[in-house]
């Protein structure tokens, strides 16, 4: 079990914080410096994770007794996993405190500087003086008034390894995972062995069939200038450089008012195919202006949570600069901001070879397993930089994030108030994930989930 140790000079409030975190009066507290001379330990629960909390003796060289206490405390810190260095917010920082803090930092453990006794605006102003310690994590608290403790608890939680949900608290999340497993999702390590399923979508006569023929180097699909030539989906399995691809040229989609009879059936078939696909090649005719129908078709890719590549076909006929068209696409297709854009000429075969590399890259991102520790570091940094807005005066917390699905990456945000996470904040978190992981071409699914109802008193 991991250890969290409270260290600092005498009389800064370590034992009081120890009792507060343990939710029990275990350590003796008094105003007499040096009251704690040995270490107190207690197993505590922080939002569903257990750890050993250690209350240490004060770091003091004023006598031989206290020097021995200091040596014991530093040895205990070396054997701990997380260190909380406490200072007295009623006093100005001194060189001795700074030197002790730097000595603790040399242990290279997750370390927070906790300024206790911050009870007033004047104390808050004084607390700013501790900024010259250069600490990465600083918390202003008042143990006596129980302020700032929640934020400190959350930091400790994030630094405890292997987030686990207690059996008696996990019913809703276990059910959630059971539902996911029942869907028959593929285990991530098997994705390299699977065929990549690619749906080619777009409105009528944008060159989807020509693109398929160019990709498989064969006149597999019938090509003509007559809109709506392709009614049944055209499937082609093709091997390229040792990888198997399943391409499906779907029927071109018209405006809703022009869809009738057999073409309506073809649209339904197209949606069925996209349900099974991994990646959508959204084909646009770059020789014509973008239309509202292009946007609606693009929405199918997001509806089925597919990896997406935007293919600007007929580039040899285009009268617009590439950067200019990309800007217009980004403005109109904001929901596909993550999709890479490539210009090609399917009939002429130009740049078709580059599509395979792009498909492989998007598929890798689409099926990847995100590193759990980095995932939680990104979420923690994001919430520290821009805290989640409070709900009716109460804090909204993300305890940790866990990836529970792939194709695309599906991430559960384990929270105390999942219904209070606004869509705009989810978008902010999504952007932060994209900044820190290679997720080009793939959507990200964020699902706020309640950690458990049993001990969540704030709900």
From TrEMBL:
Keyword Cell membrane: no
Ligand binding (GTP 1): 8-15, 55-59, 116-119
Domain of life of the native organism: Bacteria
Residue numbers binding GTP 2: 202-209, 249-253, 313-316
CDD domains (alphabetical): EngA1 (cd01894), EngA2 (cd01895)
Keyword vocabulary terms for this entry: GTP-binding, Nucleotide-binding, Repeat, Ribosome biogenesis
InterPro entries per UniProt: G_ENGA (IPR031166), GTP-bd (IPR006073), GTPase_Der (IPR016484), KH_dom-like (IPR032859), KH_dom-like_a/b (IPR015946), P-loop_NTPase (IPR027417), Small_GTP-bd (IPR005225)
The keyword Repeat appears for this protein: yes
Function: GTPase that plays an essential role in the late steps of ribosome biogenesis.
Subunit structure: Associates with the 50S ribosomal subunit.
Name of the protein this chain belongs to: GTPase Der
Organism this protein belongs to: Campylobacter mucosalis CCUG 21559
Gene name of the record: engA
